[in-house]
Amino acid sequence: MRYKSQSVAYWYFAVAMVLFGLQLVFGLLSATKYLGPDPLLYILPFDVTKVIHTNLLIVWVLTGFMGATYWMVPEESRSELHSVKLAYIQLILWTLMGVTAIIGYLFRYGTGNKLLEQPLPHKLVIVVCMLIFLYNIGMTIKKSGRFTTTEGVLVLGLASSAVLFFPALLHYENYTVSIFYRWWTIHLWVEGVWMMIMGAFLAYLLIRLSGADREVMEKWLYVIVGLVFIAGILGTAHHYYWVGVPQYWLPIGGFFSALEPLALAGMAAYAYAAMRRSGLAHPNTLALHWTIGSAVFALFGAGLLGLAHTWPSVNKWTHGTLVTAMHGHAAFYGAYAMIVLAMITYALPAMTHGRREQGSSMGYWAFWLQISGMFGMTLSFATAGIGQVYLERIMGMGYLDAQLKIQVHFLMLIATASVFTIGVALFIVDFFRYAPRFQLSQEPDPELDTTSPSSAT
Ligand code: HEM
Ligand code: HEM
Ligand SMILES: [Fe+2]
């Protein structure tokens, strides 16, 4: 840690860890309900546990993004944060928003708009938090006078995420209109601007961990951002196939969304090339596992499994089935959960007392159990989804009858999710078992002599 104010990131990461653990409790609860009968039917029905599961996911991942940004920006701009106090106020407000939203869902207080269920007061607090966050980061960069391409992509991704939240603040009476704009937030987040955030964290980690040349890495980052924009924006139409809009969205959605995996393939190739060139020089090999792992798993979950059902001719069968859940899990985990875990693993040795730079064996167990558990979960959702499509949509069996036939896959889901949960539990224990201690690094910044002035303006 080279800047004192970077220590705020620890508390963001700590909140993210607790919410991640809680997310899994509600995931497991949701999964067991598929096996029925449900003793909690009148207290905690499936719709409530699923909303809490997915909302906790979004809140903890965003908390992780914020913490990672507060860690990365001081290093990139070579300056303390503008205001540590504001960063803490933001964290408190944000956590209160997240926790009260969850309590509200328990009492069915929400808008019912999938993934954007937060009631209006909560949404307004989200806006306030984002404004505080962007102001703090913006002022830090402005005062430092140093702005790298990597942090530029990060800030652009974060600011665009805030802007894209606006359609979610409005209420639409017509369901087609409502769903049309819902994707401006959800799709353009996960397949647009969040990819810029991921790309920036990836570039930062690869530059730091592999010692790869900043200029080369940043040129590649431009290519990736370009690909995200070309494919991702019109790719939104892959959600418009069956929602009541004109037919021309079908070819547009099919064509552009099929190009989306290119950016993900680019990121994986970029990570692999950096790793090969460096020969794994950095001592924090655990962080390197998470970094490369994230690029590869995202290519699998988002790129490959997204492509699998993005064609209109396939999607007409799979839309809204467990095939979607298969892809949603692998994509979200690979791209966004893993990149946050990579940033945490990279930053943690400097934030805690007595932790070895190369990571503990508990840390490696956490990595491999999570990877294998999530892979198994993806396969369980996939087999359940394919069975569901065949029985329900091709054979014409009723929804509940088809669900009974595919129960065995939910046993597999719970078994593999348990492996995954052990991996997450180990990560959380490993996170908290060393007391926080924020010691400034005595070593010089390895980049200080080598960074070319062209990469900073
Ligand atoms: C990191 C990137 C990605 C993440 C986190 C992600 C996540 C998700 C999630 C959570 C859903 C369900 C949304 C809902 O129903 O509310 C979804 C749907 C979908 N995704 Fe992705 N996705 C990503 C990238 C991609 C890519 C690159 C493609 C195509 C190549 C793709 C194709 C689709 C399709 C076609 C659907 C709609 C499924 C349906 O009709 O039910 N996704 N995605
Ligand atoms: C213990 C581990 C987990 C279990 C047992 C679990 C289980 C479930 C279940 C049963 C659903 C509802 C599927 C449906 O609508 O029928 C769900 C939804 C979802 N979960 Fe998980 N989950 C777990 C972990 C995760 C993780 C780690 C992530 C992301 C990083 C995640 C992301 C999602 C998403 C995005 C949805 C909504 C998908 C959709 O609407 O199609 N889950 N989960
Ligand atoms: Fe999409």
Features:
Nitric-oxide reductase large subunit, mainly alpha, binds fe (ii) ion, disordered C terminus, 74% helix, 457 residues, binds protoporphyrin IX containing FE, transmembrane
Mean pLDDT, to the nearest integer, reads: 94
Low-confidence stretches are: 450-457
Looking at the chains present, what oligomeric state does this protein adopt?
Answer: single chain
Helix content: over 70%
> Which ligands does the model contain, each kind named once?
protoporphyrin IX containing FE, fe (ii) ion
Major beta sheet summary: none
What is the tally of helical segments?
15
- Percent of residues in beta strands: under 5%
Overall form: globular
Overview of the molecule:
The protein is mostly helical. 74% of the residues lie in helices and 0% in strands. The chain has 15 helices and no strands. The protein is globular, with a radius of gyration of 22 Å. The chain has helices at 8-33, 46-77, 84-106, 120-144, 149-164, 175-210, 214-235, 249-259, 261-278, 285-308, 312-318, 322-351, 361-394, 399-405, 407-432. The structure holds protoporphyrin IX containing FE (2 copies) and fe (ii) ion. Fe (ii) ion (FE2) is lined by residues 187, 191, 238-239.
